[in-house]
Design goal:
Layout (H helix, E strand, L loop, with lengths): L4 E6 L2 E12 L3 E8 L4 E8 L7 H10 L11 E8 L2 E7 L4 E2 H7 L4 H20 L2 E2 L8 E3 L4 E3 L6 E2 L19 H6 L6 H17 L3 H5 L4 H8 L22 H8 L11 H7 L19 E4 L8 E3 L7 E4 L1 H4 L11 E6 L2 E6 L6 E3 L2 E3 L4 E3 L4 E4 L2 E6 L4
Antiparallel strand pairs: 1-2, 2-3, 3-4, 4-6, 5-6, 7-9, 8-11, 9-10, 12-13, 12-21, 14-15, 15-16, 16-19, 17-18, 17-20, 20-21
Length: 391
């Protein structure tokens, strides 16, 4: 209730007071709250009516454990088990409005739309780098501030190696849900499922309404009928009247994001960023390092922050694998990729690895591809950043 005080004891926060009800769901209510000792505002998610034996309990603990280093995701501060049926999750407070409200008011200009989608992509990419799939990306789960956009609600997320989804269970919001959820359930969710949902968000930012609303669909059966028509469609959306005036080439990108078969979609958010030609700010360059040779920095996984020099002389090559990059991460092959130098130019190729190599979102083969300062490489499940100052 508004005005109610709750002993929370999370970090340095002893007690909070509920100020405003922000929203409700099937199991949870979300509140704006204040810590009077620091005068800081927070968001409290109250989850009630949970039976101790339900798999939802484990999902609550996983949501509270979300720790994604991104300014485009609202951080979780901690979890308190109030009793066996009630859990409290405390989040940082971010002043802004849900994207669905802004879209309904039609108050966004093209620059804002472009920046909002860019930041949604960056936040989703950061989650994927931490092996977390959101599974319910939609405008209601995106908060837009003055110059910043943040993703919320990882309550149905899938964590790599921590699959608690029941077989054939459907999670998420139907109007943004990837088709494979209907066929195989949410257990199959991966980065490509989130990319499909991001496609719906791009469509809605462009057209001013969700595709289902534009099509006059109100039930899941409408989508199923669309998928089962003859001949079967190849994309989950009709772009015959689509128009986007804030990204050049958006229609071609959307076609690739919305493929019905996930293996035909973009494989990573970085591919979407690359094809939309979105300029990115490079991470801060490490200081106090000798850049006679390029440097690879691990940006995700248990070995995050590790550094490896690509110390090769002209016309020579260097082979890197699991031990060099991420220790015991078995998603990386023992001999995964090769770097080659030609003068001051560097090239990279995959060595037939088990899980492949991607450069700037594009799958690379055993043919040498030029790599430049700031480029991102994905080897197995691990992301690397290539730093090189050409002297």
């Amino acid at each position: 209730m508004i005005g109610g005080k709750i002993p929370i004891n999370i970090n340095e926060i002893a007690e909070i007071e509920l100020l405003e009800l922000l929203g409700t769901g099937a199991f949870a209510s979300t509140w704006k709250a204040i810590d009077h000792s620091s005068k800081n505002n927070y968001v409290l998610k109250v989850i009630q009516g949970i039976k101790p034996e339900e798999n939802l309990v484990e999902r609550i603990h996983l949501e509270a454990a979300v720790n994604i280093p991104s300014e485009n995701i609202i951080p979780v501060l901690g979890l308190k088990e109030w009793d066996v049926n009630t859990y409290l999750i405390l989040f940082e407070y971010f002043p802004g409005k849900p994207l669905d409200e802004l879209l309904e008011k039609k108050s966004l200009n093209n620059r804002q739309k472009q920046q909002i989608f860019k930041q949604i992509l960056l936040g989703t990419s950061a989650a994927h780098q931490c092996n977390i799939i959101h599974r319910d990306l939609k405008p209601a789960n995106i908060i837009v501030g003055d110059e910043q956009t943040k993703i919320i609600d990882f309550g149905v997320s899938k964590f790599k190696d921590q699959d608690i989804t029941l077989s054939r269970e459907i999670v998420g919001t139907p109007a943004y849900m990837a088709p494979e959820f209907l066929i195989k359930g949410a257990r199959v969710a991966d980065a490509k499922s989130d990319i499909y949902s991001l496609g719906h968000i791009l469509y809605e930012l462009s057209m001013g309404e969700n595709f289902w609303q534009h099509r006059g669909w109100y039930r899941l059966d409408d989508f199923i009928n669309y998928l089962t028509q003859t001949p079967p469609p190849t994309i989950g959306i009709d772009l015959s009247d689509f128009y986007c005036d804030f990204f050049l080439g958006a229609e071609e990108v959307l076609l690739q994001m919305m493929k019905i078969h996930p293996e035909e979609r973009y494989q990573s958010v970085e591919e979407v960023i690359c094809d939309l030609k979105i300029p990115l700010d490079l991470p801060n360059l490490p200081t106090g390092l000798n850049f006679e040779y390029p440097l690879l920095i691990v940006e995700s996984g248990s070995n995050k922050g590790a550094r490896t020099f690509v110390n090769i002389n002209d016309r020579n090559y260097l082979i890197l694998g699991r031990v060099d990059i991420a220790g015991a991460d078995t998603s990386i092959s023992r001999k995964h990729l090769e770097f080659k130098r030609n003068g001051n130019n560097y090239f990279v190729r995959d060595l037939g690895s088990k899980n492949g190599t991607m450069l700037k979102g594009q799958i690379i083969s055993n043919r040498l591809v030029k790599i430049q300062h700031g480029d991102m490489i994905k080897v197995g499940d691990v992301f690397l950043r290539f730093f090189f100052l050409d002297k």
